[in-house]
Design goal:
By secondary structure, chain A is of the alpha/beta class. The first copy, chain A, is 48% helix and 9% strand.
Chain lengths: 427, 427, 427, 427
């Protein structure tokens, strides 16, 4: 754990400069008629969940290069998430992955998390890989498998996820499957979707009354010719077929090249089916890079649509926010801190958009003025506002700096054994 | 017009070799237990519509290089379509584009077409460019424009299309709009869709009882940041919002890179919303290249899904087929003949697929056998079957050869003045 | 012309707030150890050329929607470029397009430009469309055409461009051709390149001693299957084959999806073959959107490579900067002002990068610190520095605001007749 | 091993039908003036190497699902390659991957291979993952690493590959590295390339006089922001910098979306730098799907360029052919048989192209005739020719059928223990 005193000390050294920067920004915003206090409040109101698997080092099909002090299990993962939240004060929830994170003692898990100020977000099922003790293989699919017994195994696993989720206070199940095909003809595209829907109906039926079912689509990978739930259209078809508590989750990296993701957000919000997000960034495919590291303006534009959706008063609009990234070359804790702040930054920057000017320019088809209105907000460096929000909530002015100074990684590396690296999906 | 005697003469010279090839193929297929006669019947049952604008030379935003004998108006276009059908015997319908093809004397148009064995397919509205006499501009949109008066003008145009279509025997209106934006912020993505839907509701209300409304989506161009109806998800949202006679048209070139188009076909067919196709091929974007010229196996796979959809007995399954290509470097008549035959080829080849073997391999997850089952059909050169179908229907064994021999282009070039070329969309 | 007094008045009203913002920024930067004066100097040292064709409204193959007061010829274009420079003080050169901008009286052109503070950048040849009086067509190519007489016509045109360019003080010829094919097999890919090289050798031979030949590649469009100079590899092959004064021009929108353009910049700079840039932005293809409007961080990263190249002391490193955009929905003057400033912004922001920290993080493989070092510079709103640079050079603090207030567009619309709109490359 | 008698029996049952099909095809081709005997000879002259790693089941970063009887080491892999060659008679060489396939007894390896009619192709080095006993990690790169000691380790490994390759009769080293970065700024793009070149110079210097160095590029993955050797331009820069025996290898799946790969083949062949191929197919990225399974016409077009290059008499034209695929859902032996035959098919089909007609159409800019000339060859089902070539060489008429009938997989599954599956690159 990060000692709260260490954070305070670290902050003390940085506060004079922070104060100067915050005041300078406040005065700049004041000159534009913007109240900085409201933006600090906005920043403090924001949060984004951490996926438990995110605190481990990721890899590619070619290799995985573990870092020092990799978490050994869910307890270590919770600890790491606690560090992220202690420093950033923007990540109060953890999203678990079943069966990786399952435990016999949920109460102990809740207690461990609670001490760190953490609760639990959506639970995630996993039928895209085989577990050591699993009777039937998902090599050829899970919820859409041609064999009913495999589908039943996958349905049962999802039911078990709900049961475990209920014990830790989750109220949503996120279902992402890798089902699809690698050859034209391998799968009957129509029947595979039928089987998927039939399986999902059974899972939906097992959903407690206050739960939601989040459907996550992905354009390709691990299947390389066709994927059963490959796009938001398929996800929407499934959600509307299942019932009102089924919604569509948007992972920023799960789309075809060039896709305008923010418009998908607008469409799903409008019809009351936007489940929420898996945030990350990418350049090529589902690269799972750090949020905001490649295209920060794109992230800002997603939040622009969320702000507009909120202003539109759409029914059933309560998107869940989660990071979902693969940290191959950084300390995952650092990446998650920076990424959570990047998402928060995009949210806060959208609070700076002059909506009246934007809507006026839109109505007048003044494309240039509309563009400049958005970019004026995006160009504003709200860093001091985010720092102030952290400070007030007990976090660190410079969370990565404080983390590095804390020696946390060195310390856990001593008590957590070196993880195995080696090959990825290839032999 | 192409003299039927010329076709017969041309066929006579080629028939011995055709007969030999056809017999060789028949015996090969017979050895595989396939009856060639059924395939000839299948080929003769197929047809694909020609878009009236397709017989003119296309261009890019950089330039248009007209060819000799460009059609001057709808009468010339009908004549050219007549040539295509006379030779190919697979294109008995023409799809008109309003206002380009509108005429004061629909009866004369019907008569001119009828003589050539042609009828009329869906009518297409055009609100993506300004006409010389048009009061309000579509520069900033049409059916989704922020200004109600512009929307009303666009709605009225679509109503006029329906009225004209009724006079020539059409029973479907295809609506493709270029509405969208070039800058983030330029358009309110949610409100633009709302306005589009409200406009489409008025058009849908004007639809005669036996008509369908075909919604055509396109991922980008002419709008380069966002497009109101950019994907099949948006198209489906609109169609279900409008009513049961609104359906989604699939243009093969209107998707993001890497999109699995055949699965979209399967999805739309399954929910009874597949309007039909605009066939073409492409390598980069909406290149509008000749059908089957770049990825013939992709075209075959689209027809595989259509065949499967038909076998599945889905409700409301009656897709309309139309070519929609831009012929920049060929004689459009030649390209349309070859492309119509390519589409017919993919349809006929699918008649060769051993469905029992395919479905068996799918159930058994024998990906390799499934793939080989499809490819065995695709590899079969059904050219002699297509030629035989043409011969029996009065067409040409070698339609391009016969066309070239006919001197048609030379003849029309003499009476049709040279068209202007020069720049495209750029100054 | 924009009255200098009007600019001064406009500035006077805005200066108090500018001064406050500039001082606030100066103090923030001072706290980071950065001298704001140096950045103002950096901003003032930067310039980017305007393409003469950019001041007209662009279009797509579907349509062109002209705006009011479109320039009628090169004189009007020079005037519009003068307005852009008077307000932005960052665009002192115009790049001409031959034959569009050719004139019998170059001296008068020089004089007209000179009065507005304008000189001339590279001249651009045009063999991608046919001119009204042109004997042979470029429908099937120009410098790589199979017919020697067409190639000779294209070579002669390029020679004429050089001759005209010499009269107006240019020292570079930019050659972009649309040559390529729309069908597999249409062109012999090897021989087309051979013919291109042979033609370019003749052009290179005609180059005055102090001139450079800029080769511009483009992945596709107007050719849709293959393009003779489609990528930087082909461009580099051609340049090295021609001689040391042949270089490779990078247009930001001319690459395959997902391409890392900044690395291409690094590669070409390293081998002394980076000619310079055509700046624009894009989301789908060669959208020719306004620079920095879609992916501002991407533009920043291009300048990061340019800064690194400069620091590396590579030989022959003197890239030319030009905007090259298509303004379909905005007033082109406004778009060019904003875009020039966006490019300048990226250049100035790179002056803020802590290079020692960046290089240190790179050496230590501290990916997160390296990323944050770049983003810290990118997040700094250098707007007040750019405004200060304009102010000191006699430009406008708010160039678009001042332009709108000036009534220039209204005024020219009265004396310039309405341009024709209508269809683009399609019929 | 596959019993030669079993193959003969299997063939005997199929020969009557084969004979009928072959004769029918021969007579069809004869009518077109094509001699079938020449095509059988062409088919028999072709070969493509098998990568040793290809006989194991592949996976993705999400999971690997092993099949029964996975090879345990290089001996098992050689056995499996022997089966592929015995049945297909088109894969007489194996390409080894070091260190996976290294052995203390090269003579025994040569003997084992020789018995099966196998020799050895290029050796492949591996510095994209860490080996258990490796002192320094490649997490942040290998040949371009910032740390000299890591680069030296990677250089030494490549030298060891050459030494081992010499012992087994290889004459080429293929170098593919995963070096690159995941964040803008992480790597100095210029210096990384400098370091790569310096390392490669040392490897090149260690090359025996009769060896070639094959440089393989890849647009992305495992690095997701930048890759040191990302495109053919970078590969060519490196090859020309190193010396005449350095060449550029083209893996069909290693390009940006929409890339015209066949033109890259034409460019590299023309300048004498085409090393050869890694064949596979793909729909999304580097999917490593079975050759010819997604876009068979694309494969045909690659061989069209190879045929043209051969006819052009380019210097140093001797491309090496190898399959490089990931078999995730099929029996790798079956996939490799089918894929080898697909590549052979594309080669043989190109022997059917009427080159005089093609070149004539190209010279005349008759795009349609050129396209149809290629497609006429592609549409010809040369399956009976390939079968005849196998039959004459001692292989199987139906190699997959014979393989399945042989019970080979069942047999090896009994003596080879079940391999571990589970997660891929993710935790």
């Amino acid at each position: 754990m990060i000692d709260q005193n260490r954070i305070a000390e670290d902050n003390a050294a940085r506060e004079p400069r922070h104060r100067a920067e915050f005041e300078a920004l406040a005065s700049l915003l004041d000159a534009r008629g913007i109240d900085v206090a409201g933006l600090v409040t906005r920043a403090m109101a924001f949060s984004v969940a951490i996926p438990s698997w995110g605190v481990g080092t990721g890899g590619t099909r070619f290799a995985r290069f573990p870092g020092p002090g990799e978490p050994r299990g869910i307890e270590d993962k919770i600890d790491d998430c606690g560090v992220i939240h202690a420093l950033s004060r923007v990540t109060p929830a953890v999203s678990l992955h079943i069966p990786w994170d399952i435990t016999d003692d949920p109460a102990a898990l809740i207690e461990r998390a609670s001490v760190l100020g953490l609760g639990f977000d959506a639970v995630n099922s996993n039928t895209f890989m085989d577990q050591p003790d699993q009777p039937l293989s998902y090599k050829f699919g899970s919820l859409s498998h041609t064999d009913r017994t495999v589908r039943e195994q996958a349905i049962a696993h999802n039911r078990a996820c709900i049961e475990f989720g209920q014990k830790i206070g989750s109220t949503a199940l996120t279902v992402w499957i890798g089902d699809g095909s690698n050859f034209p003809g391998q799968a009957h595209l129509g029947r595979a979707f039928d089987r998927y829907l039939a399986s999902m109906e059974e899972i939906y039926a097992a959903l407690p009354a206050d739960w939601h079912l989040f459907i996550e689509h992905k354009v390709y990978e691990p299947a390389f010719y066709s994927t059963v739930i490959s796009d938001w259209g398929s996800s929407y078809l499934a959600a509307t077929s299942l019932g009102p508590r089924a919604k569509c989750l948007v992972d920023l990296g799960h789309h075809a090249p060039n896709t305008n993701v923010e418009q998908i957000v607008a469409r799903l919000a409008r019809v009351g089916r936007l489940a929420g997000f898996h945030f990350n960034d990418s350049k090529y495919g589902d690269d799972d890079l750090d949020s905001g590291s490649i295209d920060p303006y794109g992230l800002f534009l997603v939040f622009n649509e969320l702000t507009e959706a909120e202003l539109s008063g759409y029914a059933d609009f309560a998107p869940a926010y989660m990071l979902d990234q693969s940290h191959n070359v950084t300390d995952p804790i650092e990446s998650l801190i920076v990424s959570a702040v990047e998402v928060q930054r995009a949210f806060v920057q959208n609070g700076l958009v002059d909506r009246a000017a934007l809507h006026g320019a839109q109505e007048a088809n003044d494309a240039l003025a509309a563009s400049e209105t958005l970019k004026a907000a995006f160009r504003t460096d709200v860093g001091p506002i985010l720092a102030e929000a952290r400070l007030r909530a007990g976090g660190a002015l410079d969370p990565v700096g404080a983390y590095r100074a804390s020696g946390y990684r060195r310390a856990v590396a001593q008590r957590r054994p070196t993880a195995a690296g080696g090959g990825g999906g290839i032999v």
